[in-house]
Design brief:
By secondary structure, this protein is of the alpha+beta class. The chain has one domain: B-lactam Antibiotic, Isopenicillin N Synthase, Chain (Jelly Rolls, Sandwich), CATH 2.60.120. Helix content is about 35%, strand content about 20%. The chain has an eight-stranded mixed β-sheet with strand order 1-2-10-7-12-5-4-3. The chain has a four-stranded antiparallel β-sheet with strand order 6-11-8-9, with no helix packed on it. The chain has a two-stranded antiparallel ribbon with strand order 13-14. A hairpin with a 6-residue loop joins strand 8 and strand 9. It is globular. The N and C termini lie far apart (about 55 Å).
Length: about 375
């Protein structure tokens, strides 16, 4: 679906009849056969959520392989709950654009000086270029913050609470379905099941982050530096390209193209650690917008994170809680590139893992040829 921006600061949707036609096209158009054929685009697997919840072997197997091999995949959500998530995402976009178009000082009223909730301005974290800063601003809505009475969140949430709560609850249901399927595939029992580390009533940093990537930013601030996500599973809703993943096979940056009716899902560090490094957490980044015809980019990311006190063992063998890993990783996100390079935390040890795998493969080839 294409959402058009007016020349005014307010965001306008097409009339309801027109929006219905666009929505039906969005729901019925099947892009799954085309995106992987575009040069420079990532060839990701597709999992059908409806089939997965019905325990269809083709879908449970596809999910397991996607987590083991790529760490990123497309999730088809068109046949679930009358596509309510798709409808809600369209509505959320109509709220985001005018909110982010506000004067800077107005948005900063909701800046809490923490990475846990509230507004985050452009230039908070590391950007793509050496010593540059990122080019996105965001509103973060955590489960914890929305349960406080009254919620300590921006007015965008307070004035649209029913919509955003429904969207977040739907995202949580999706991620728990994915974890449950993975637990079944690995024959995990009782407390060792992945979903048992993600109970909704336990404190965690699970959140919805609403991102705005402006077309141009001041001072050369653009993009977002390479990283892996610190949590368990991420759901990304976007109608425009900008996400790029590092191919472990070619070491090239491949574009993840948006698909109508699909969500992009990726595995984070915590789930990789909980799986004993069986799953793959892919290195990715946000590319800047250079095309003259392209508007600023709106993205919604739902980040499922393990319970604060869930114990994990990182890539270096250090044991810590999921909350400690989360906080440490955010400190690294904000650091200069020179500091980021001194640690494996930024990419969760995946760069070293890929390098070791390539060396092992080369050694095996040399042994066979010798």
């Amino acid at each position: 679906m294409t959402i058009r921006f007016s020349s005014h600061s307010r965001f306008r949707l097409a009339p309801r009849a027109g929006l219905t036609v666009i929505y039906r096209r969005y729901l019925n158009h099947d892009a799954t056969k085309h995106t992987s054929a575009i040069p420079g685009s990532a060839r990701l697997k597709t999992v059908d959520l409806s089939g997965l919840r019905s325990r269809e072997l083709s879908e449970t197997g596809a999910l397991l392989r996607a987590c083991e091999e790529d760490g990123f995949f497309y999730l088809d959500i068109r046949r679930v709950n009358n596509a309510q998530m798709i409808k809600d995402w369209m509505l959320i976009q109509s709220l985001m654009q005018p909110w982010f178009a506000r004067p800077f000082h107005d948005k900063m009223r909701y800046h809490c000086g923490t990475f846990l909730h509230g507004y985050t301005p452009v230039g908070t974290y590391a950007g793509l270029l050496e010593n540059s800063k990122d080019g996105n601003e965001s509103i973060k809505i955590t489960d914890v913050a929305r349960r406080v009475d009254p919620p300590i969140l921006p007015d965008l949430y307070l004035e649209n609470r029913a919509l955003l709560d429904r969207f977040m609850d739907g995202c949580r249901d999706i991620t728990i379905s994915l974890l449950s399927s993975l637990s079944d595939s690995l024959d995990l029992r009782e407390s060792s099941r992945f979903e048992q580390s993600h109970r909704s009533y336990m404190p965690a940093n699970t959140c919805l982050n609403l991102f705005n990537y402006p077309k141009s930013t001041r001072g050369g601030q653009f993009g977002q530096n390479k990283h892996t996500d610190n949590g368990s599973l991420t759901l990304l809703f976007a109608n425009q390209q900008g996400l790029e993943i590092l191919s472990p096979r070619t070491s090239s940056w491949d574009r993840v193209l948006p698909r109508d009716g699909h969500v992009v899902v990726n595995v984070g560090d915590t789930l990789r650690f909980l799986s004993g490094n069986r799953f793959h957490s892919s290195i990715h980044r946000a590319a800047p917008i250079f095309e003259p015809s392209q508007q600023g980019r709106l993205v919604a990311g739902f980040f499922l994170r393990a319970e604060d006190h869930c114990m994990i063992e990182d890539n270096e063998g250090s044991k810590m809680t999921a909350r400690q890993w989360h906080d440490h990783k955010y400190d690294i996100y904000k650091s200069l590139h020179s500091i980021q390079r001194t640690s494996t935390v930024l990419t969760g040890g995946m760069e070293e893992h890929i390098d070791n795998a390539k060396r092992s493969q080369s050694a095996a080839i040399e042994t066979r040829e010798g």
